[in-house]
Amino acid sequence: MERAEGLVQRRNVASRERAAGSGPAGPVAADGSSPDVEEADTDGDSKQARLTLMEQVLMLGIKDREGYTSFWNDCISSGLRGCVLVELATRGRIELEKSGPRRRRLLARKVLIKNDQPTGDVLLDEALRHIKETEPPESVQCWIEYLSGETWNPLKLRYQLRYVRERLAKNLVEKGVLTTEKQNFLLFDMTTHPVTDTQAKQRLVKKVQDAVLSKWVNDPQRMDKRVLSLLILAHASDVLENAFSPLSDDDYEVATKRIRELTELDLDAEAAKPNSLPLMWAVFAAFLK
């Protein structure tokens, strides 16, 4: 009996430590960044797979049964690269240089290494190495182009992150969210990744819907940074409509109106506010300019 009570007491202590920001989950910086911990969505059960920002955006874009993104979507490629930069920023690995007395605009400021320790995610660590090796530093806009392979400079082509969608889909297969199939398209076979964990997809869609409806916060500075990034980058990747299409006409109108409010913000002003994450706002600016 004493042993059981001691075990419960230790668990309670560990829970209090995590709630206080110390212990296994690690500290959380004043700017809201969390260096080593992926987002843990507490809306589902405790065994729910933890998804990166890139994986969430890809999931919104993947057709549940077909297992691939729309052939007409030419935005998701660069959108996923933006997700990589925001993910590195929220984990405390990269930051935007200070604006200085001249108050340079977000897209003129350079990306700097804040902490070069690996994240444990192969895709993120590959991007982190590229940023670390580049001298002089480059802007967010440049990095989105480099990581996407959309640059005319042949010397920068080596920075391209290749097969991003396939690698993210493989991660989601390993996390039990997607599966792998082969489909024949007349002239060629294609590997597809249909959704197997429909509850995880539904939770993600509901999370997006709630963020602009029942849990709407009419102040971007008070919004969870990862949720805000998910909304903006899903919009930039042209996959947000997939989450909004099941809504009623009235809710759809409210949701799109609130997304429009976010896209019309003064991004430089938001980035200058206390406890903001300037690099996140710079990524938004690259897509919303």
UniProtKB/TrEMBL annotation:
Respond yes or no to whether keyword NAD is given for this record. Answer: no
Q: Which compartments is it annotated to reside in?
A: Golgi apparatus membrane
Membrane topology classification: Peripheral membrane protein
Please give the biological process terms from Gene Ontology that the record holds: Golgi organization; Golgi to plasma membrane protein transport; Golgi vesicle budding; retrograde vesicle-mediated transport, Golgi to endoplasmic reticulum
Record Pfam families: GPP34 (PF05719)
Provide the residue span(s) of the region labelled Disordered.
1-47
Give start-end positions of Low complexity composition bias.
20-35
Q: Which GO terms describe its molecular function?
A: phosphatidylinositol-4-phosphate binding
User: Main site of residence?
Assistant: Golgi
Q: Which UniProt keywords apply?
A: Golgi apparatus, Lipid-binding, Membrane
Entry similarity comment: Belongs to the GOLPH3/VPS74 family.
Q: What is this protein called?
A: Golgi phosphoprotein 3 sauron
Q: What is the protein's species of origin? A: Amphibalanus amphitrite
What are the leading ranks of the lineage?
Eukaryota, Metazoa, Ecdysozoa, Arthropoda, Crustacea
